[in-house]
Specification:
By secondary structure, the protein is mostly helical. 95% of the residues lie in helices and 0% in strands. It has helices at residues 2-88, 90-103.
Length: 106
Amino acid sequence: MTEEIIRSIAEAESKAVEIRNRASEEAAATAARAEIRAAEIEKSSEEVCKAYRETQLKAAEADAEKEYRAALAEKGEEARRYAERLLKGTDIFVSRIVGRITRGDC
């Protein structure tokens, strides 16, 4: 009876070692798969971030170009109005100068 108990304990210990070894192997395999998947996710994330950055950069450039064109048009219009104001009263002076030149009063 004692031998049976000892044999039963030895078998149980042997099974426990097998279970522990299998669990260690499975844990190592799971860790390896996790590392591979993490590397894939990292690569994919880098690509997504790079594409997002390029898209945002192009959008920012387009917005800046649009604002530049609008500011240029606005300042061009301001310059045109300013020139009109300056030239508005010059007709009289130009006529006088042309008259003096043509009459020889210079």
